[in-house]
């Protein structure tokens, strides 16, 4: 896959390359596994294998504008430890990396007016009357502040605690 075409009225309105879609993987409910490289000081510190993301999208409408909050809870296993780092620091850095990837992908969507995360569909299902009031030609109007917040929780299991303890010393 090289990327995706955004189709509107049977016409391609935008092309987003694969590299700009890195945050999309965190919203796939059926994602089996994906690697996440966590860096410290500009160098790779660890590689986590993440699986089974649990995604929750919340909506709020204020001043006739929709705002969304995405919550992601992901399970991760330590695949490789490259620098000494505690489990808590690893969890926090992984959560920030996932949030950054989601925001980056969302920004690419806003720039192309492509609803990458299907936020419009979420609003349409949960609040059809609000959807009818704010949609423009059947699309959710997107702006950088449409995505209000992203909360990420990373649960490290079978972390190779012995490896982490040895490397952290």
Number of helices: 4
The separation of the N and C termini measures 42 Å
Strand order of the largest sheet: 3-4-5-6
Overall pLDDT score: 88
**Are there runs of 5+ residues with pLDDT below 50, and where?**
none
Q: Using only CA atoms, what is the Rg?
A: 18 Å
Name the helix and strand elements from N-terminus to C-terminus, one letter apiece. Answer: EEEEEHHHEH
Q: Can you tell me about this structure?
A:
This protein has 169 residues and is an alpha+beta fold. The protein has helices at 87-112, 119-126, 128-134, 161-168, and strands at 3-8, 11-17, 34-40, 43-62, 65-81, 147-157. The strands form two sheets. Strands 3-4-5-6 form a four-stranded mixed β-sheet, with helices on both faces. α2 packs across α3 (128-134). The chain is elongated. The chain starts with a strand and ends with a helix. The mean pLDDT is 88.
Would you kindly provide a brief summary of this structure?
It contains 4 helices and 6 strands, in the order βββββαααβα.
Provide tags for this entry.
169 residues, alpha+beta, 4-stranded mixed sheet, two-stranded antiparallel sheet, 6 strands, 29% helix, elongated
């Amino acid at each position: 896959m090289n990327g995706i075409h955004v189709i509107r009225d049977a016409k391609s309105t935008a092309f987003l390359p694969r590299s700009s879609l890195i945050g999309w993987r965190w919203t796939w409910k059926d994602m089996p596994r994906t690697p996440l490289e966590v860096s410290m000081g500009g160098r790779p510190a660890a590689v986590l294998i993440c699986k089974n993301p649990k995604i929750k999208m919340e909506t709020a409408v204020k001043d006739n504008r929709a705002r969304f909050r995405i919550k992601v809870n992901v399970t991760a296993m330590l695949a490789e430890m490259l620098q000494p780092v505690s489990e808590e620091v690893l969890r926090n850095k992984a959560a920030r990396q996932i949030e950054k990837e989601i925001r980056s992908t969302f920004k690419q969507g806003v720039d192309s007016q492509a609803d990458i995360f299907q936020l419009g569909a979420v609003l349409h299902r949960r609040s059809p009357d609000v959807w009818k009031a704010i949609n423009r030609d059947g699309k959710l109007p997107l702006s950088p502040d449409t995505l209000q917040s992203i909360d990420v929780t990373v649960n490290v299991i079978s972390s190779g605690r012995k490896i982490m303890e040895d490397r952290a010393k």
